[in-house]
Specification:
Blueprint (H helix, E strand, L loop, with lengths): L1 E3 L3 H11 L6 E3 L2 H10 L4 E5 L7 H11 L4 E6 L4 H10 L3 E4 L4 H18 L1 H21 L6 H15 L4 H13 L9 H4 L7 H8 L1 H9 L6 H9 L20 H16 L10 H10 L7 H19 L2 H4 L2
Parallel strand pairs: 1-2, 1-3, 3-4, 4-5
Helix pairs in contact: 2-3, 7-8, 7-13, 7-15, 8-12, 8-13, 11-12, 12-13, 13-15, 14-15
Bound molecules: fe (ii) ion.
Length: 322
């Protein structure tokens, strides 16, 4: 996302607040911001309304002229009905009041993103089809994981809904679940489907797939949040995962859901090197992994789901007849 506020102190505060969840480009110079919107497409824009060099409304109009589907949120310290009407008429997705309530900021931004996506449904349909195609590409490369991508998508939706994710977060989760293993295309076949224990060198090759995946997806506009989850899907809550050893909430929320869903599916199904685990052992694994491997809050919700609804998690009904 692109954040523009000509007050550098406020800009820094906002950027620091949003950085863990969004890929933020921040500038105090609205003219530079205008140049930036010319050279790349951002998913989301947050502009201050009152800026001397170029008022937020002008920047909004320039942005929408370049990309009609852009989500642009304005913020102002001097609210009035007239200004709110003017902003919304000009095409702002939302108008936030300053001082910003940081606890509610990310929720408003996700809402804005969702609103803008609903405005552009054609785009959504095309993206879903590309996701399907890429999921199949990974499974063609590694047939031992056949069905894994689709099952993880269903799992992510079930868990995402159970923890109250917004539609925008669910959409990110769906993309991330579909694409998380795309980087396996870069791992040699002999390593990927080896029916025995991997050597440390082979495991190092496997460990590159999250970053390779993010690189593969780099040219696709609008996938920043999805790419972030792809990179994160083998991280752990305690920072002992790979590739970066991110810990706790440094890992995005959709990323944390994906980590959990990915592990569940791997345990609940047979692979070339192991049998499927029974329900009791899987529940115990998630219980003992709360706060170490998994986000503790998510793990608690998930163990409840495993207890209540194990069969649906193992093989979603929609996939059973295939
Ligand atoms: Fe993976």
């Amino acid at each position: 996302m692109l954040v523009v506020d000509d007050d550098p102190a406020i800009l820094e505060l906002i950027a620091a607040q949003l950085q863990p969840e969004f890929e933020v480009t921040a500038t105090a110079d609205p003219l530079r911001a205008s140049d930036l919107t010319r050279s790349r497409a951002y998913d989301l824009h947050l502009y201050d309304l009152t800026m001397d060099e170029l008022p937020g409304i002008e920047l909004l109009l320039l942005t929408l002229a370049r990309s009609a589907e852009a989500a642009v949120v304005l913020m102002t310290g001097e609210p009035s009905v007239e200004r709110a009407v003017e902003a919304l008429r000009a095409g702002a997705t939302d108008l936030l009041l300053k001082p910003l309530r940081f606890d509610a900021l990310s929720a408003s931004l996700w809402r804005a993103l969702h609103k803008a996506r609903v405005r552009g449904p054609q785009n959504g349909v095309r993206v879903a089809a590309v996701h399907d195609a890429l999921t199949r590409a990974v499974e063609a490369k590694d047939p031992t994981t056949s069905g894994h991508g689709e099952r993880v998508r269903h799992l992510c939706r079930i868990v995402g809904e159970a923890i109250g994710c917004s539609q925008a977060e669910l959409a990110i989760l769906d993309g991330a679940a579909a694409l998380h293993d795309i980087g396996k295309i870069g791992v040699p076949d002999a390593v990927l489907s080896k029916p025995a224990r991997l050597t440390p060198e082979e495991f190092e090759l496997i460990k590159r797939h999250p970053e390779v995946g993010a690189r593969i997806l780099e040219p696709v506009p609008g996938l920043d949040a999805v790419r972030r989850c792809v990179v994160e899907h083998h991280e752990r809550w305690d920072g002992r995962g790979y590739p970066y050893g991110r810990r706790g909430e440094e890992i995005s929320l959709p990323g944390r859901v994906l980590i959990l869903a990915e592990v569940f599916d791997a345990l609940a199904h047979a692979r070339s090197y192991k049998e499927a685990w029974p329900k009791g052992e899987i529940a115990a694994f998630f219980r003992s992994g709360r706060g170490s491997h998994f986000d503790p809050h998510l793990a608690d919700t998930f163990v409840d789901l495993v207890d209540r609804d194990f069969d649906r998690l193992v093989e979603p009904a929609a996939l059973r007849s295939r």
